[in-house]
Amino acid sequence: MRKQAGFSLIELVVAMAVLALIMGAMVNLFGSSTISLHTGAKQEVVYEEARLLMNELKTTLRYADKESIEPEKPTLGTNELTYNGSIWDRHMDISKGQNKDYKITVEWKDDTKKQLQVTYENTTDSTKKVTVFPKDIKNSVFEGRFPITAESITLNDSNTVIIYKIALPLQYELNGKMKTQTLETKVVPSEGEEELSWMEKLSKDYYDIWKLRTKKISDMTDGEKHYLEEYKNFLNNGNGGYADWKLASNDDIRKFLFDKYGVEGSAGSKTWPTVSVNGDVLYIQPHAAKDLPAALEDVVIFAGHEELKSDWNTSYIYNRDEKVWYYNPSQKENKIVLPGKTWAEVKSELLSSGWIKVK
């Protein structure tokens, strides 16, 4: 019988070395993927913290009592800002909501001035909520600069208003490197705005954005320029289809208004504002045909049981001239097709094709 030859020592050493190289490469590959996954999650968490706080500060300042803001003009060296306001409880059907009074205190958490502490006190029911940003001090890049500052601007009618700028800097690790980003927005306290209906507010704001598409920067008022910056910042933070605001679509404007006016739904996610019509709770939405002239009348307010119909059909239309809703009982959600139609065309259908005024 012929003797079977085994592996030599040199062959075994070479095989083990090759195997070690392969295993090392695999460990490095999976290790890098895991690190990338974890750092990506950190980025998402810190960004969401900033977005939530930004929305709270923007909303409460918008409905703040101007006389209560102390100091009236905060600077980068400010240590504490307080203000009171009243806001509609938008977590329910608007017909059952109520105004709730609140007090906001924005201050540094401690003397290091690395973390911001915001105390929201609901003075209607005495409840409090405290938010610290960023939660992890390692993500802070505040460097002692207060995040809310103010400036005065003079409008075309010679009236002066104070605009508040909110800037939340954040830092996170991405692929082993530290990245920084700043979320910014501007807001003007607007007492009395809650007296407008949702339909009027959505129409007005849609129109205010739409008309900027046809104006040159040099022809804009200071207030319009600041509103344009707020809209552009929203789009450039990945919330719109185009970085160039002049190319912004109907969907981009709707996304901006949804971010501004969206309310917290029962499942914890945002929804469009609601209104009770014919005993039904309906979602209110704005729409305008593409490339129409800048006019308030070009904005159509419609509603439906669902948040969005892909074909834009609806059986509920708000008649702004009469300030009432019209309803078509013959077809639930498939009567008027909105795209491409002016308000005059929509209104003509309302008054001639079986629509009923909701009393």
Strand order of the largest sheet: 10-11-12-14-15-17
Output the CATH topology of the largest domain: TcpA-like pilin
Number of E strands: 17
Give me the CATH architecture of the largest domain, please.
2-Layer Sandwich
The description of the largest β-sheet is: 6 strands, antiparallel
Helical stretch tally: 5
Query: What is the residue-averaged pLDDT?
Result: 76
Low-confidence segments, given as residue ranges, are 33-41, 91-95
Compute the CA-based radius of gyration. Answer: 27 Å
SSE ordering: HEEEEEEEHHHEEEEEEEEEHE
Our measurement of the CA-to-CA distance between the termini, rounded to an integer number of angstroms, reads 107 Å
Would you write up a description of this structure?
- With 359 residues, the chain is α+β, with helices and mostly antiparallel strands.
- The chain has 2 domains: 41-190, no CATH class; 196-357, TcpA-like pilin (2-Layer Sandwich), CATH 3.30.1690.20.
- It has helices spanning 9-62, 198-210, 222-239, 250-261, 343-350; strands spanning 80-88, 99-108, 116-122, 127-133, 148-154, 160-174, 177-187, 263-264, 270-271, 274-277, 280-287, 300-304, 313-314, 316-319, 324-327, 336-337, 356-357.
- It has a 6-stranded antiparallel β-sheet with strand order 10-11-12-14-15-17.
- Strand 5 and strand 6 (160-174) form a beta hairpin.
- Helix 2 crosses helix 4 (250-261) and helix 3 packs across helix 4 (250-261).
- The termini are far apart.
